[in-house]
Design goal:
Helices cover 9% and strands 43% of the residues. The chain contains 1 helix and 12 strands. The chain is globular, with a radius of gyration of 16 Å.
Length: 162
Amino acid sequence: MGVLVNSGRAAIASAIRASAAIHVAWGSGDASWGSSPPAENTSATALLNEIGRRRATQVDFVTSDSGGVIQLPNGNWSVSAQPTGHLYVRALFDFVDAPTATIREAAVFINTVANTGVPVGQMYLTPGQISNPGTMYLIDHLSPQVVRSPTTREQFEYVLTF
């Protein structure tokens, strides 16, 4: 049995970064979750109630670094000029993106395809504007839930490990 080596992980991350339309999707989940959402299902392929998705505004290689400026629940990270087996994905949702929604779930999708007729470069897509959602890489049930306001931008950040 073989072991996936670091250069192989970096190659996978490089291929995803170079060729993929990476989006962060958000959804309302299930209101009955309250403040205790269920554990994420590793066989999930879609959000329970997707509201929309935004193309990642930043996708960079990162390395674990206790002094790094990217601070996430799983530690600190620093941007790397060299390919690594970790991709930092950041999406900054705009004021007008689902401005009054309650967000209970989020996910990272790779290779989302918009419908024909959606303007090229449109950053935010609603479910009706998507012809192929792509592949879900990560799902996150949010606690506490996020109650949107049209005066606030929401930011989601994840490190994808390959």
